[in-house]
Amino acid sequence: MASERLKNGYQFVATTWMTTSLLFALVIGVCYLGMWFSDRKNEVGHYSAGFHAAALHSLPAEDAHGFFKEFDQLGDDGTFEYQPWVGFSERVFRSNRLNVDAGMPLPHRHTIAPLPTGKDKKVVWMFGGSTLFGWGVPDDQTIPSHVARLLAVRFPDCDIEVVNHGHCFFYSSQELLLFQLMLRAGQHCDVAIFLDGLNEINAEHKEGREQPAFTGRAAKAFRREQEMSQPGGRHLFVSPQFPPFRLGRALGLGKPPAEPEVTEAQMMEVVANVARVYPFNVDLARRTAAMKGVRPLFLWQPTPEEYFDPGRHNPRRADMNRRILATVKGDDFHSLLDLFKDEKFDGVYVDQWHYGDKACQRVAERIVEIVANGDYLASPKGRGSP
CATH for 48-207+256-378? Predict the structure, then answer.
């Protein structure tokens, strides 16, 4: 009898375990297939789904959509990698029209420039966020690529190398660090151009401390490593890409609440943070550049809140820009806020925030005009007053 009960108990446990395992595998399989079909149908998580082909004037619409998928590939390959001091950068990447070259200290977006002729060489470093990086436009349509071509025409007696040091999510604090790291390593440029604005306002501040992008992810990685190193600590972690979790998010389960409208007090807090950080970083960049004989140029970029449909963007940001700009002084600082004031949104912006090819060219033309009028590329002895 005892052996019979043991046998029946074993069969019950084995059957229950097998049934549960098969049911679990079936649920995961159904979730996986559901998300796979959903991704293919809706391009969930793919950058190309949000791009406006109308703002990419240099390519036919069909070619533009094909190019936008190169950004999907960059994202699928893992867009970013860890970098000391500045936190992260894009990975080295190769495709037809979107390329990130290896560089020191960080990889950087490929710049299309005229071939060198052996004449007097000048070097221009350009710093900024994803706008300068050229998110949404081909290599030959980024702001630095346009600047390189325009400078070659404006200064035919010089070989001018323009290097794109724009990185997604970067703002002035990271750009300043990168600028100093490069100079400290013995690299040199004649002109350093900083294009900022959007990411300055978007930069997160908590309890008086700046929080660059991916700070939360880095903190989580530290905590996970500490938990795993403790005796009796956690050794099993479930990825957020686990199919049931993804399906739950797609169904709206655990979805964070919509962000409330920005209040006047919150707007003033953002203005106060940027007004404290940005002018300080500009001043440090000026001092650093003076130590190494570099001419700095600081630009505040156009943003869509200045003149486009308030229903598409937060109208309070336009006033934030104006208040912040009032805190920055100097002949080497220029606002480009009104550059697109008479343009239509879909002809300027390739997505919610980033410029298309013609808009990038307009920004580049303004930059080259400022550089030429300010004698930025003249030899030190031939320069007029900055």
Answer: 3.40.50.1110
